[in-house]
Amino acid sequence: MYPVEKFHHLADEVTAWRRHLHQNPELDFAVHKTARFVADKLASFGINHIETGIAGTGIVALIQGERGEGPTIGLRADMDALPIHEATGKDWASKTPGKMHACGHDGHTAMLLGAGKYLAGRRNFRGAVALIFQPAEEVELPSGGLKMVEDGFLDRFGISQVFGMHNWPGIDVGKFAICPGPMMASQDDFDIVVKGRGGHAAAPHLTVDPVVIAAQVIIGLQALVSRSTDPVESLVISVTKLRASNAYNVIADEVELAGTVRALAPALRDFAQTQLETTTRKIAQAFGGDISCHYRRSVPATVNDIAATALAVRAAGGTRAAALDEKLRPVMGAEDFAYMLQARPGALIFIGNGPSAALHNAAYDFDDAAIPYGVAYWANVVEAALGTGSD
């Protein structure tokens, strides 16, 4: 295993790549300049097998080991930014108003490039390593992870396991965190239209007030979690949008609600989808109204394979990181690496970003001090899965 000190010599170069990417953010699948930057760097490392254009702008680069036959493992980073106007004030802040790397994908991409340079220069492993650079992680449907899987790259490159890494504010730089099984939640979204009968706000008795019904619906949805599911299991139903009349004295005919559902267990996800529409309709009908409901399944839960998690723990521990939390409490955010984990065994790990602003916040920035730890982790994943002994 390789300690983090072995990769300090790459830190300045990888930091420069990261800050270049941060200054030039791109969204969704339209990460054309980012993909070109990545492909050019990969070619400069002497990697000959580079496939571009996967799911539009995704890239997979294959590094063949020189220690004989073996499996192919995949290491994945995401490339896209977010539609947020940056407020960090850093020298390397986004040059594009309204776009910024507010989730650290610039750091993920740079660290995997750093690992690619190191691995391509040594090739002291069996089998092969596929470096996966994914667009559109922040897109709900269809996301870049789903589109790449549907494109068939896992079969085309013969990838047997996949590993991902995401920075996490609140975990100290130099620390890692992971757990086996469900680590991040599924994400589904819903739109509900509460239908009543509008009228003058001074005569509510002549209406079927959809605002009152909507209020009862919101309370009823919370009761689904608090009174219809096991309290030791994790289900979140959050109503995040509400739109009714634009006037003080008008009761509208309809009220629009929207929100998100998060779950760690497939059974809870199924329960939420079925009961959300059934419960809201019964509530509305009890008040003389009705509803229409559109429920969209998005990202599945991120589920770490037990054996792959053990391998990831070995790899993180091999960096001589300041700490490793092997029993991370699952979080209810979603990550579209889940699609790759549905198709292949593997594991996602968190790498600490220190006391930074939260992800998806205009004041967020990736902490470059984490870079040597991330590169070391990737090298150790390869060592643990494919190596024949470190030097």
Secondary-structure element order, N to C: HHEEEHEHHEEEEEHEEEHEEHEHEH
Q: Give the number of helices.
A: 10
If you compute it from the alpha carbons, what radius of gyration comes out, rounded to the nearest whole angstrom?
A: 24 Å
Shape type: elongated
Oligomer: single chain
Task: Please count the beta strands (DSSP E, at least 2 residues each).
Answer: 16
The class by helix and strand makeup works out as alpha/beta
Helix content: 25-40%
Which spans of ≥5 residues are poorly predicted at pLDDT below 50?
Answer: none
**How widely separated are the two ends?**
9 Å
Question: What keywords describe this structure?
Answer:
single chain, 391 residues, 8-stranded mixed beta sheet, elongated
Describe the structure in your own words:
Helices cover 34% and strands 25% of the residues. The protein contains 10 helices and 16 strands. It has helices at residues 11-23, 32-44, 105-122, 144-151, 153-156, 210-228, 266-286, 306-318, 338-343, 371-386; strands at 49-54, 58-64, 72-78, 128-134, 159-168, 175-177, 181-184, 186-195, 199-200, 235-243, 250-251, 254-263, 290-297, 302-304, 323-325, 346-352. An 8-stranded mixed beta sheet has the order 1-2-4-3-5-16-6-15. A 4-stranded antiparallel beta sheet has the order 10-12-8-13, with helices on one face. α1 runs antiparallel to α3 (105-122) and α3 (105-122) packs across α10. The model has no long low-confidence stretch (mean pLDDT 96).
